[in-house]
Amino acid sequence: MGEVFPVIAGIIIGLLVSRIGGVRSRWITATLLTVIAGAAATFLSGESRESWGFVFVDIGLVALAAGIAWGVATVVARRVVSAR
C-alpha cells in the first residue's frame, strides 16, 4: 500500500473540508481527520511494528495532500462562481 493511502485520504479530507462552512470548524475538522487518517495509515501499513515515529510522517503526508486538495477546491469554486 506504501504511501498511497495517506495521499488519497488527504485528498478526500481536503475536498470534504472545503465544503464546510466556518473557518474554525474547517480547521478543527481538518486537524482531527488528518491525525486519525495518519495514525490509521501507519497502523494499516504495518509501520507501527517498526516504530511509532512513522505516524508523524504519515500525518505530514495526509496534511500536505489535504492542504493541496483544499486549496485547489477553493480556487475552482471561486472560478466557477465568478464565471456565472
Protein traits:
mainly alpha, 3 helices, 84 residues
Number of domains: 1
Query: Helical element count?
Result: 3
Give the percentage of residues in beta strands. under 5%
Query: What is the CA–CA distance across the termini?
Result: 42 Å
Principal-axes geometry comes out as elongated
Largest sheet: none
**pLDDT average, as an integer?**
93
Order of helices and strands: HHH
Low-pLDDT segments, ≥5 res: none
Proportion of helical residues: over 70%
Radius of gyration from the CA trace? 14 Å
Judged by helices, strands and strand pairing, the structural class is mainly alpha
The count of β-strands is 0
Describe the structure.
This protein has helices at 4-17, 23-45, 54-83. It has 84 residues and is mainly alpha-helical. The longest helix has 30 residues, at 54-83.
Outline of the structure:
The protein has 84 residues and is mainly α.
Which secondary structure elements does this structure contain, and how are they paired or packed?
Elements: H1 4-17, H2 23-45, H3 54-83
